[in-house]
Amino acid sequence: MIKIENIHKSFQGKPVLKGISGVFEQGKPNLIIGASGTGKSVLLKCIVGLIQPDEGHVFYGDKEFTKANRDTKTEIRREIGMLFQGGALFDSKTVEQNVMFPLDVLTKMPQNEKIDRVNFCLERVGLGGQNSKMPSEISGGMQKRVGIARAIVNSSQFLFCDEPNSGLDPQTSILIDDLILEITEEYNITTVVVSHDMNSVMGIGKRIMFLYQGLKCWEGTRDEITDSGVKEFDDFVFANKVMQKLRKK
Amino acid sequence: METLGKYFIFLSRLFVNRETFGTYFKLVVDECITIGINSLFLVSLVSFFMGAVTTIQTAYNLISPLIPDYVISLVVRDMTILELAPTIIGVIYAGKVGSSMASGLGTMRISEQIDALEVMGINSASYLVLPKVIGSLLMYPLLVILAGLLSMLGGYLAGTFTGVISPTEYVYGIRFDFNEYMVTFAIIKSFVFAFLVASISAFKGYYTTGGAVEVGKASTAAVTQSVIAILTADYLLAQLLLQ
Ligand SMILES: Nc1ncnc2c1ncn2[C@@H]1O[C@H](COP(=O)(O)OP(=O)(O)OP(=O)(O)O)[C@@H](O)[C@H]1O
Ligand SMILES: [Mg+2]
Predict the structure, then answer these.
(1) Residue ID of nearest Cα to ligand 1 atom 31
(2) ipTM exceeding 0.90?
(3) Would you kindly state where each structural domain of chain A is located, as residue ranges?
(4) Nearest-angstrom CA–CA distance, B203 and B217
(5) pLDDT tens-digit map of A237-246
(6) What SS3 class is residue A29?
(7) How many Å lie between the centroid of ligand 2 and the Cα of residue A41?
(8) Cβ pairs bridging A and B (under 8 Å)
(9) What are phi and psi of A208, to 5 degrees?
(10) Residues 6+ apart with CB under 8 A from B186
(11) Does A105 sit within 8 Å of B120, measured CB to CB?
(12) Which residues of chain A have a CB within 8 Å of the CB of B112?
């Protein structure tokens, strides 16, 4: 479980996050959704510590993260896996070296165990046998899957995904979404997914937090989406025709 | 001024919270190989021709029969060791190695590879940049020594081939009144330039923001600023060390 409290962040005097609190539960995908530029990525980066928030706290389990000392931070970071918007694979390393990288730097596992674990994770994301390919030789969807494999290889307790299906076709998107959902439930991890794709929201949104202009504007499950009673949220959700039809029914 | 402050903070980050020695050893070796592959051919080519051209031009300018021929190779030697090898090669080094360091790191920044390292709790500045700086400190002086040798060889071949100077006189001139301190000075210069090029280029690349266009800009800025730093340091070192 991850808890955030009153997160504030401004850039050059321009407030982006204006006090966001909430809880992300274990064993289910927690979605952060909202229009472009509302600060979803900034919030995610505040949670994983890539950006230092101006104010507020982040708790991993019962451990405070934001103001923790370096050792505690490193300890928590070993439990964090992150899938970046563009995959962020190391482009000078092969698929296998990419997935093995967290094991190389964070553990003292012997080489043969590492290889077994890497093969297991690649198999898990449906990319068995692609070990020696370079990131530039595989498609965007495959890169995302390698990114997921890298994020879970260290048996992390926390998984963060920034727009896991941006730039992918609808079918591949669903594949990635399902993979995230399965992994989350199978290993009972706390997953936080940033998205602005309504398909994902309906597909895997067990818990949804809606951001609007730097504030949390609505929170709930996907079953409660249609009757939120919040105008900004309705505008976002029913922007697309399919969702509008769904509402009429 | 603010950039200068940021640069020094960046440098200090290289030395805190490092990874294990073994990790760096491998990275430094990789870096040395990359630097070598990137620069060896051009450095060799330029230094060879630099020596050849200096020889022929010096010969052309020394038409007085009062000046002995060996002065030609003496001039070639002094110019090569003092200025051409460390400084001109430094400019080439900035153009080849510095720009590729900056664009490499810039690409890693905009594609979030640096963020990926940070999330794993790795000090990305140290992990990515320290091996580049050390690799540069190891490789650049070697390149300068090689350039010096090739330049004098180029001079020898050009001089004897065109007949402006006889082989014996060329060798005599190279050895005449030789001051070892010049070599020491050249090596000191090359360490300083190696550090400047690697750290400035890495700094520019590491703090790239935006997209592919900005990576290109960072790489150009890295070359320009490295060259300015080299020339400034060249002047200061000459003032300091050649009294
Ligand atoms: N490092 C930064 N410096 C200054 N401003 C920033 C920085 N990072 C983000 N911002 C600003 O914060 C705002 C929110 O950005 P953010 O990337 O979080 O949006 P987002 O909700 O993730 O949008 P998208 O769905 O397009 O990814 C934007 O207006 C952006 O300009
Ligand atoms: Mg974003």
Answers:
(1) A37
(2) no
(3) 1-79+160-169+191-249
(4) 13
(5) 887 777 777 7
(6) strand
(7) 4
(8) 44
(9) -130, 135
(10) B81, B82, B85, B86, B144, B148
(11) yes
(12) 84-86, 88
Other beta carbons within 10 angstroms of residue B168's beta carbon come to 11
Residues in contact with B118: Cβ distance below 8 Å, sequence separation at least 6, in sequence order = A49, A50, B124
Q: Which tokens in the block code for residue A75?
A: 């300890």
| Structure tokens that stand for B1 in this block | 């001024």
Number of other CB atoms surrounding residue A156 within 10 Å: 21
Decide if pLDDT at A227 tops 90. Answer: no
Asked if pLDDT for residue B65 goes beyond 80, the answer is no
pLDDT exceeds 70 at position B17: no
- Amino acid code (one letter) for A11: F
- State the residue for tokens 């003032």: B239
pLDDT digits 0-9 by tens, B161-202: 988 888 898 999 888 888 888 899 999 999 999 999 999 999
Kindly state the tokens that stand for B211. Answer: 């997209």
pLDDT bin (cut points 50, 70, 90) of residue B62 is confident
With an 8 Å Cβ cutoff, is B17 touching chain A?
A: yes
Instruction: For residues A119 and A239, give the distance between their C-alpha atoms in angstroms, rounded to a whole number.
Output: 42
User: CATH code for A1-79+160-169+191-249?
Assistant: 3.40.50.300
E strand or H helix that includes residue A99: helix A95-106
